[in-house]
Specification:
The chain has about 700 residues and is mainly α. Among the domains are: about 415-580, Serine Threonine Protein Phosphatase 5, Tetratricopeptide repeat; about 590-685, 2-Layer Sandwich (Ribosomal Protein S8, Chain: A, domain 1), CATH 3.30.1370.110. About 60% of the residues lie in helices and about 5% in strands. A 5-stranded mixed sheet has the order 3-4-5-7-6. It has a two-stranded antiparallel ribbon with strand order 1-2. Strand 6 (about 665) and strand 7 form a beta hairpin. The longest helix is centred in the C-terminal third of the chain and has 20 residues, at about 605-625. It is elongated. Belongs to the PPR family. P subfamily.
């Protein structure tokens, strides 16, 4: 930061602000009076790194016009000889008092007194009189530079301007005073002081602007930082690479992404030093733009440049990878972070919870939650809801209830409508009607009206329990509340129909016709078993083209399931063909020289059985035509099971293939795969009869 080394010790008087430095040691007493400027004041690699990771807004300035110390304690000869004084000598104490070490210490104490005194001219003058009448410009700079109270600093500045008749560089006095305003995060005060400076005819320099820019940054006012940066040419000031690097962050935060990237490209070309704050901003910019590879590239470039990531950068990167739905990257980055001995803070855990929750990494998310509880870290409502939504997605009913109880006991978070919605979804998918109704009542008591999401989950719950009248009642409640059924709600009604006895389907058909006339017409054609192939295909095609892309597959799956339940195999095949032509389904059948496969992982049970029926017919035609089958044939059902059921597609198919007496057997080394050889398949296909589809 500006003037950091200048005020950190008595050995560097005008270090990084104006290169007016004295290299006075404790042991030798310097005999030459003028304090020679040091052109390079970075004595070690450590100090270089400090400059790298924070914005050094004070720059080295031309030394030729610097003021000389007017303190009478300094002799006037210009030799560089030193006189050793025996510390046991009676003169040692007196000589120490004459050294500038002692003077510097007294000036720092004056600054401390000014910070604590009342902000009025009389009290400030009382403190400053302790300096005596022989006050140098350097003394004034030291005092102001060590102050932190902007109110008394202004009064002190005015006093120094009165007693210093012709300051060599009055801009220095203003710069260190502006720095005091930066310490207090008072940009308005700093700007007013700048205006006064211009009115007095004092020309600002690079340090002036870099201090104002850094003040705007610490005040979280990036637009103001940009304004001050763009004023620099007006006053004949050319930004240096440190200021340019800082502006990458400012432009990024101000929303001028193009300028931020332009400066970053230039920074890489010209090898500017970039601080971690700027790297963090670049990662955020790429993350907001959805360029998550860009986030990782910045991170890798940062490490390649030798800059060490700090905790803020790790947290920013974890958050970006979470939004990118790349939980494996989150794990890698977190592992690297802990290996570098960074302890996770609240922001780290929040980023991990969001990342694992969104990716449905249930166990990982729960482990993070447990660690937060063990450390006594409180969650926000949003984080609780993230956990509960994840539990709903992966079917962790017991864990969700425990989290909900923790939330209520926390005393800092109250459940909102999203909280109740997730819990109702969990109970609804599990078919726990009384528990779901209990949460609905608790929600109403808390003052929340049921949302479309809650009512959708209730319909799903009643449907799973085959309580058709309650489904109809809930649907009517939706209309009474003035809620317009959306695609998800209608899809839920359609899914309920696949679980409803045939005799009760007309009740739900009426609901669907009110909610979505196109969907209602297609379902009515199926339920009423109306003939007219062309009419059904046309209606189904219009429906699937009309609905949103995010629900097309769900609608198509449910319609095929309904056809299979109603023994309408021909209609099911038509819908599957339509789904393939509209690219709702893709790559269900695949062929290579060594294996032909049926891929069913994205299909519902009814749709998968329909696809099997079509595939078997296709294989039969191949055998009848005399074409050769490949050495191996396989059916891929996936290895998962339904999150709220022990029954997966593999279990259903294992049973169904046995019913068909098909020679497919589960592969021991490939979970979810059923394989057979060319010889066995050909023999079976030649002997088989058309199988009846049965939904397990």
């Amino acid at each position: 930061m500006a003037y950091h080394h200048f005020c950190s010790s008595p050995y560097s008087l005008f270090h990084d602000c104006h290169s007016l430095s004295a290299s006075i040691k404790a042991r030798p007493i310097r005999s030459s009076p003028p304090l020679k400027p040091l052109s390079h004041s970075f004595p070690s690699k450590t100090s270089i790194q400090v400059t790298h990771v924070s914005l050094p807004d004070a720059r080295t300035q031309e030394p030729q016009n610097l003021p000389k110390l007017s303190n009478s304690h300094y002799p006037d000869d210009k030799t560089k000889s030193y006189v050793w004084v025996n510390p046991r000598s009676s003169r040692a104490s007196r000589l120490r008092q004459l050294s500038y070490d002692s003077r510097y210490t007294s000036l720092v104490k004056v600054a401390e007194s000014l910070d604590s005194c009342n902000p009025n001219e009389q009290d400030v003058l009382t403190v400053l009189t302790s300096l005596g009448n022989d006050v140098s410009e350097q003394d004034a700079v030291v005092v102001l530079n060590n102050m932190s109270n902007p109110h008394t600093a202004l009064l002190a500045l005015n006093h120094f301007q009165r007693i210093l008749k012709k300051p060599c560089r009055e801009v220095i006095l203003y710069n260190v005073t502006i720095k005091v305003f930066r310490k207090s995060k008072d940009l308005d005060g700093a700007e007013k002081l700048f205006d006064e400076m211009i009115q007095r005819g004092v020309r600002p320099d690079n340090v002036t602007f870099s201090t104002l820019i850094s003040c705007a940054r610490v005040c979280a006012l990036p637009v103001k930082a940009v304004e001050w940066f763009e004023k620099m040419p007006t006053y004949g000031c050319d930004p240096d690479d440190v200021t340019y690097s800082a502006m990458i962050d400012a432009y990024g935060r101000a929303g001028n992404v193009d300028m931020a990237f332009t400066l970053y490209d230039r920074a890489r070309t010209e090898k500017w030093r970039i601080d971690p704050v700027t790297f963090s901003t670049l990662i955020k910019i790429y993350g907001i733009a959805g360029n998550y590879d860009g986030c990782l590239n910045v991170y890798e470039e940062m490490k390649a440049l030798g800059a060490k990531p700090n905790l803020v950068i790790y947290n920013t990167l974890l958050d970006a990878m979470g939004r990118a739905k790349k939980p494996w990257q989150v794990k890698t980055i977190y592992k690297e972070m802990t290996a570098n001995r960074f302890s996770p803070n609240w922001a780290t855990y929040a980023a991990l919870l969001r990342a694992y929750g969104k990716a449905r990494y249930g166990d990982d998310a729960l482990n993070v939650y447990k660690e937060m509880k063990d450390k006594g870290l409180e969650l926000t409502v949003v984080l609780y809801n993230t956990l509960l939504a994840m539990c709903a997605d992966v079917g962790y009913a017991d864990e969700a209830f425990e989290i909900f109880e923790d939330m209520k006991k926390s005393g800092t978070c109250k459940p909102d409508s999203w909280t109740f919605s997730s819990l109702i979804t969990i109970y609804a998918c599990s078919g726990k009607v009384s528990e779901a109704e209990g949460i609905v009542n608790e929600m109403l008591e808390a003052g929340f009206e049921p949302t479309i999401f809650v009512l959708t989950s209730l319909i799903q719950c009643y449907g799973k329990a085959q309580r058709t009248d309650d489904v109809v009642r809930t649907f009517n409640r939706v209309l009474e509340l003035g809620i317009t059924p959306d695609d998800r709600f209608c899809g839920c009604l359609l899914n309920v129909m696949t679980q409803t006895p045939r005799e009760e389907l007309p009740k739900l058909t009426d609901c669907l016709e009110k909610a979505n006339s196109k969907l209602g017409n297609v379902v009515k054609l199926l339920v009423d078993e109306q003939n007219g192939e062309g009419n059904f295909k046309k209606e189904a095609s219009e429906l699937l083209n009309y609905i949103g892309s995010d629900v097309k597959r769900a609608y198509c799956n449910c319609l095929i399931d309904l056809c299979v339940n109603l023994d309408l195999l021909e209609r099911a095949c038509e819908l599957l063909e339509l789904g393939l032509s509209l690219e709702i389904y893709a790559d269900i059948q695949s062929r290579s020289q060594t294996q032909w496969s049926l891929n069913l992982k994205s299909l519902s049970i009814g749709a998968a059985l329909t696809a099997l029926h079509v595939w078997i017919n296709d294989l039969t035609k191949v055998v009848e035509s005399g074409e050769e089958l490949p050495p191996l044939l396989g059916i891929n059902t996936g290895h998962g099971k339904h999150k709220y059921s022990e029954k997966g597609l593999a279990t259903v198919f294992e049973s169904h293939l046995k019913e068909l007496n098909a020679p497919f057997h589960e592969a021991p080394d490939k979970v979810g795969w059923f394989l057979t050889t060319k010889v066995a398949a050909k023999s079976w296909l030649e002997s088989r009869h058309s199988p009846d589809l049965v939904v397990a």
